[in-house]
Amino acid sequence: MTGTDQKQMTIRYSAMQRFVEAAGIMGIIVMLGVLIRFWGAAPDSVPEHFGRDGRPDSFGDKRILLLMPAVSIVFYIVFSGLQRIPHALNYIWKITPANAYRQYELMRLLIASLKAEIIWIAVYVVIRQIQISLDISDGLGPVFLPVLSAVLLATVSLYLYLAYQDR
User: Fold this and answer.
1) What is the Cα–Cα distance from 131 to 8, expressed in whole angstroms?
2) pLDDT tens-digit readout, 42-63
């Protein structure tokens, strides 16, 4: 089955997927809570961009802090929409009647996992933006990019491994 041939089917949420979904929603709630808690304490100028070393290299109006939750919410909604149509997505391996359910299930878990991870990365960035603006911290940390890359790569690699096993 390819592209338009793929059959739509009802995929039940596994316990793991429910947990990952809850983690993503909790990340948005935490991010909004942090902003509400520290909005008044944050100065008018906050970091808006970071260099490779994790240190801020550009500052802007504190309203830039609102961008991360807004983008995270839109991201969550769009990716949640993709999870509803796993049959319309592209797969590396051929989708057959025998493997369709498991492949769709794995794709939905991948999307949910990436969604939660990216939202929690955004939470970390917002917290660090506030800490930097309050002179509590001086940057994201030198390992931010390597750890970010490793986490996302590990998630996609695990998906590929599992999808390959169930092809």
Assistant:
1) 47
2) 999 999 999 988 999 999 999 9
For 3-32, how does the pLDDT look when each residue is reduced to its tens digit (9 = 90+)?
445 667 788 888 999 999 999 999 999 999
Long-range contacts, stretch 26-32, CB < 8 angstroms, 24+ apart: 27/72, 27/116, 27/119, 27/120, 27/122, 27/123, 28/69, 28/72, 28/73, 28/76, 28/119, 30/123, 31/68, 31/69, 31/72, 31/119, 31/122, 31/123, 31/126, 32/69
User: Do residues 10 and 16 lie in contact, with contact meaning Cβ atoms separated by under 8 Å?
Assistant: no
**Alpha-carbon distance values, 110 to 22, 49, 82, 130, 148 (Å):** 14, 28, 11, 30, 16
Which residue type, as a one-letter code, is found at position 104?
Y
Q: Which residue type is seen at 160?
A: L
Answer for the pair 88, 106: CB distance below 8 angstroms, yes or no: no
Distance in angstroms (rounded) separating the CA atoms of residues 132 and 118: 21
Q: What pTM does this model have?
A: 0.89
If you count them, how many residues does the chain have?
Answer: 167
Cβ–Cβ < 8 Å for 101, 8:
no
